[in-house]
From TrEMBL:
One of its GO terms (biological process) is protein maturation. This is Pyridinium-3,5-bisthiocarboxylic acid mononucleotide nickel insertion protein. GO terms for molecular function: lyase activity; nickel cation binding. It comes from the Bacteria. Coiled coil: none annotated. It comes from Nocardioides mesophilus. It catalyses: Ni(II)-pyridinium-3,5-bisthiocarboxylate mononucleotide = pyridinium-3,5-bisthiocarboxylate mononucleotide + Ni(2+). Belongs to the LarC family. Keywords: Lyase, Nickel. The keyword Cytoplasm does not apply.
């Protein structure tokens, strides 16, 4: 399945949450991920509202702490400690990393020193983690995002009075198509930094709706309801028809890139952390091959697989984390099976199951290990028993 985000009225975190629920993601999938991260109670609830002439889903994030400023390091620590599926943790981390890099660029500091203002508060963290969990649940093989409407005028926040688009949004949308918004749109902020970070973190390309057979539509409502303007973001989910545009986002063409370098003078104890740092920098995969170099010297070839829009970050991580002074890069074709996710119930608890499909037929079904371990802990049963039960329940999906 693929997705298309209609951002012709911008996007914010809670709007995207509403669109995901409207597109069929169970609210408990979002709530479970948010609860796993939040150090205190966070409630997600939805209601159907009308924006302009459109029925839409408004998602409320109810949390006591909505003004604590956190640093990027604080947020990274919350994500690292949370019992989350790796893909959800990684995409939430990458989203906040983009926010930290943008915020640092705008304010002339470093990502490590960045103090998140609104986006560091728990409700914003819930937005990011919930959206990442919802998109992971959909298991889309591609997400095309329309040109992003950013709005106009001024906005007041923790930074005081800011022009619209806010500086962080301008920074985050570098390389992505954006514009003030449709003719007649009210003077307001349409895309927030959290919305922009989530869009660019997950877009595989930007453009008009691709040829697709739409199966579900989610319409996420913004908090404001200006006269004569439907303040919504739409998420269309369906089967692709023909070819989906290659990744034309900030990172360029489709496919992937393999970066390689031979290293013979790095303390071997460092390699596990090098691999971890590359994955954290957004690489799709990283691995080592032992080799013998000139003079019979033992060494390793470091291989890094990266999507086009992650190559810069992966390359920088290779240079920062190893002793190499040169990296070769090979564009490669990459074929990935369509992915979908479902949930199965074991002992009354939801377990996400990742499905891989070839020509529309399920060829692989894998229960999410983090969920299995979570249910085993909650029910005081061996993980292997819960896993066996989840696999058995999955058979009914095939
Ligand atoms: O919280 C941060 S880092 C922040 C940075 C900026 C800059 O442009 S710099 C602007 N804002 C404003 O805060 C609110 C809420 O943003 P969310 O992303 O949390 O929805 C919004 O008006 C932003 O323009 C926040
Ligand atoms: Ni700022």
């Amino acid at each position: 399945m693929i997705g298309w985000v209609d951002a012709s009225s911008g996007a914010s975190g809670d709007m995207l949450l509403g669109a995901l629920v409207g597109a069929g993601v169970p609210l408990e999938v979002l709530s479970a991920a948010v609860t796993a991260v939040a150090p205190e109670a966070v409630g997600l609830r939805t209601e159907t509202v009308v924006r302009g002439a459109l029925a839409a889903t408004r998602c409320h994030v109810d949390v006591a702490d909505s003004h604590t400023h956190r640093t990027w390091r604080d947020v990274a620590a919350l994500l690292a400690a949370a019992p989350l599926a790796d893909e959800v943790r990684d995409s939430a981390h990458a989203t906040f990393e983009r926010l930290a890099v943008a915020e640092a660029a705008v304010h002339g500091t470093t990502p490590e020193e960045v103090h998140f203002h609104e986006v560091g508060a728990l409700d914003a963290i819930a937005d990011v983690v919930g959206v990442c969990a919802g998109l992971h649940h959909l298991g889309l093989s591609a997400l095309v995002v329309s040109p992003v409407a950013v709005g106009s005028g001024r906005v007041r926040g923790a930074h005081g009075d800011l022009p619209v688009p806010p500086p962080a949004v301008v920074e985050l949308l570098r390389g992505a198509p954006s514009y003030a918004g449709p003719a007649g749109a009210p003077q307001m902020e349409l895309c927030t930094p959290t919305g922009a970070a989530l869009l660019v973190s997950h877009a595989t390309s930007f453009g008009a709706q691709p040829m697709m057979a739409v199966a579900t539509v989610g319409v996420g409502a913004g908090g404001r309801d200006p006269e004569g303007h439907a303040n919504v973001v739409r998420l269309l989910v369906g089967e692709p028809v023909g070819s989906v545009p290659a990744a034309a986002g900030p990172g360029g063409s489709g496919g992937a890139v393999v970066l390689e370098t031979n290293v013979d003078d790095l303390d071997p104890r460092l390699w596990p952390d090098v691999i971890a740092a590359l994955l954290e920098a957004g690489a799709s995969d990283a691995w080592l091959t032992p080799i013998l170099m000139k003079k019979g010297r033992p060494a390793h070839t470091l291989h890094v697989l990266a999507a086009p829009d992650r190559v810069d970050a992966a390359r920088a991580a290779v240079f920062r984390q190893t002793s190499t002074i040169g990296v070769r890069e090979v564009p490669v074709g990459k074929t990935a099976l369509d992915r979908e996710t479902r949930t199965v119930a074991v002992a009354g608890h939801q377990i996400t199951v990742k499905l891989a499909l070839l020509d529309g037929r399920v060829v692989n079904a894998q229960p999410e290990y983090v969920d299995v371990a979570h249910v085993a802990a909650r029910t005081h049963r061996p993980i292997k028993d819960v896993l066996a039960e989840a696999v058995a329940a999955t058979q009914e999906l095939l």
